[in-house]
Model the fold of this input.
Amino acid sequence: ADVINVTFGAEVWTYSNAGVWSANEVDTLPGAAVSNPIWFNNRLFFPLGTNGYSYQVQPSTAVLTDVAAPTARNFVKYDNKLWALDQNFILYSSTSGSAASWTTLAAIPVELDATNGVDLPRGHLVVYDDSNGDLAIWAITHEGPYLYDPVNDKWFRSRFQYPYNRLVTSIGSAVTQGNDLWVQTGLEDLAKLTMGQSLVVDPYQGPTRPDGADFTNATTGGNIVNITADDQYIYALVNLDTGSGQQRVAIFVHNARGWHP
Done:
């Protein structure tokens, strides 16, 4: 029967379509998943950052196989291959996803953050259109999106740059819906990118704009924790800090009429 795999930290559990949780955890990962798992080659792949990655073969109750490298930040599927970006922002591809099957490709040419003097989270891979209307691999970084050229094994920086935001560490989550690429640009802001013959950007599409949710009662404002999408809606998980040691978490949904709590 079909099941949903759910991770709690490093623990993997299953939830059946009959509404029943597994009696015990299916397995324990070497570390917590750092982004969403992906289905490829009849396997479910979990990116684990510095702990490498793990994959699970059907049936879904099977114990996972742990692989030390690449140290995957996240995965995408493109051109019948699985692609991974590692902790050093090097791109890899594989036709199977098995250990020792990976081809090492170009690294993203991004710099350290000059303000903080540290390396910021970056390099969220997503598949979206290029200027010719063909699918391409994009990497969402703190310097802006980069596009990958598989023919020349090279990254090219797009012209889009993020608006300044104090919570730059939240940059990186991106999803596609229809003709648009939605990118988290820090705190409560999202940017909607639409690729035609040139890149069209609406940089302020978060739940507070233009007249959405009110985050003013939050001391540090609201910040989007993560975004996801289906064929109709954009979903934003928003964290609100009330300043009293308590936090509220809410899900906001976007459709053609705007944002809704």
User: Anything to note?
Assistant: The mean pLDDT is 79. The first strand starts at residue 3 and ends at 8. Residues 148 and 155 are 5 Å apart (CA to CA). The two ends are 33 Å apart (CA to CA).
